[in-house]
Known about the structure:
By secondary structure, this protein is α/β, with parallel strands linked by helices. The chain has helices at 12-26, 31-41, 45-50, 52-56, 59-63, 112-128, 149-163, 182-196, 217-234, 252-263, 286-295, 303-306, 338-346, 362-370, 378-381, 384-398, 404-428, 435-454; strands spanning 68-77, 83-94, 100-106, 135-140, 172-176, 244-247, 267-272, 276-279, 311-314, 326-328, 351-353, 374-376. Helix content is 47%, strand content 15%. Strand 3, helix 6 (112-128) and strand 4 (135-140) form a beta-alpha-beta unit. The structure holds 1,4-dihydronicotinamide adenine dinucleotide and 2-oxoglutaric acid (AKG). Residues 176-179, 221, 248-254, 272-274, 316, 330-332, 335, 355-357, 382, 385 line the site of 1,4-dihydronicotinamide adenine dinucleotide. This is Glutamate dehydrogenase.
Amino acid sequence: xxxxxxxxxxxxxxxxxxxxxxxxxxxxxxxxxxxAAEEIFLSLTPVFEQHPEYIQHNILSRMVEPDRxxxxxxxxxxxxxxxxxxxxxxVQFSNVVGPYKGGLRFHPSVNESxxxxxxxxxxxxxxxxxxxIGGAKGGSDFNPKGKSNSEIMRFCQAFMTExxxxxxxxxDVPAGDMGVGAREIGYLFGQYKRIRNAHEAGVLTGKxxxxxxxxxxxxxxxxxxxxxxxxxxxDINETFLNKTVxxxxxxxxxxxxxxxxxxxxxxxxxxxxxxxxxxxxEGIDLNIVKEIKExxxxxxQTYVDYRPNATxxxxxxxxxxxxxxxxxxxxxxxxxxGDSARTLLANGVKVVxxxxxxxxxxxxxxxxxxxxxxxxxxxAANAGGVATSALEMAQNSGRYYWTFEEVDEKLQEIMKNIYxxxxxxxxxxxxxxxxxVGSNIAAFVKxxxxxxxxxxx
Length: 457
Ligand SMILES: NC(=O)C1=CN([C@@H]2O[C@H](COP(=O)(O)OP(=O)(O)OC[C@H]3O[C@@H](n4cnc5c(N)ncnc54)[C@H](O)[C@@H]3O)[C@@H](O)[C@H]2O)C=CC1
Ligand SMILES: O=C(O)CCC(=O)C(=O)O
């Protein structure tokens, strides 16, 4: 089946629906990728109405097909000398705006659909930062849980032994995502250097500060999320001060979102991991969470051993039944469904902003938007991490380091600009206040114009 391109004569909706029907046929077994695409397609009718040239250039069909998908075997030896085999991926989705850029996820759920949805989202997110970075994502179905440090190192070395041939400071620059932090990036970088015999610092970001890494990268996604919400609140003359906040997850994004929200005077009362959630009515003691997660790699359940007034509940979904002013989902995709969204609404939530990638499903997003909840979509609200990665690339190529304050100031400026850009696009294209539509359109137009500028390929 091929799309009929009839230029200005085709209605925007007919074109968009046609491309989506083809996408469903071609990717029938990739629900996460189709969900991410549908969310963007639903925003685009006014763009194609105003820009019939995008139909002539068949921009949408070009944008939903990744430049390439690399899949490879990762063979490594565990601590019992058993040979283990995992599957590795790198989806290089688009380099229209800059070199491919995006994290690596090590999690047993990783498959091609999840890699493609993340890489596709990354194209739009990276464009919104205003920095020259294209979109990619990679990872493996390797499960880091319960693995020794030596096993993690051997896995990372095996992973890089194949990945190295596909990346480069001007080609594709991976970083961390779930299950991949500074330790894993260190092992990956070490192996890259050994193979290439070159200290090409800009080939990976999220490195340890002092060894090529930028200050603030560790904190950047969580801090950036809170800076974005500050902008949303500013528009209604509000601040974080004395707000009750619920944050899901207790990993990199969640911990630093909690830290910054607390800095700004909020009371964060709950967080979670994949087993369950804790509720601390007096406000979470973040030092305990850091000790449990960053030092001991233990379950969040153990928090209640330190804080007698806190409670632990099995099951991660229940966290959304805790009344709050601001909800920050920072764990994983599809963690908020329609029912959870309605519960949040009934309990008086005012703002929902996404630290994780695609944490709200389409039904949940509609519940928020239709009921006037201020909603910050992931590709805008969590772009602070990748933006700071781009700042790390800039420092690496300039061969110097900025101070914590310098990077933090740039991050705040970037998050503010993303907010303004998304808000203005929403207004211009007829959906004032809708940051889903605004962020999708602002990014789409930039990539679409790039595709036209750079010619058909
Ligand atoms: N690390 C980064 O810079 C960025 C991460 N993200 C997204 O943020 C999310 C979290 O990533 P990180 O914090 O980096 O990962 P991480 O590996 O540091 O932490 C993930 C946390 O989520 C918990 N978790 C997993 N599934 C869960 C569930 N169903 N319910 C509750 N908790 C659950 C885990 O126990 C862990 O505490 C992911 O969606 C990731 O793609 C987005 C932008 C940048
Ligand atoms: O810093 C990066 O390159 C990647 C961050 C990331 O994976 C994300 O934004 O989802």
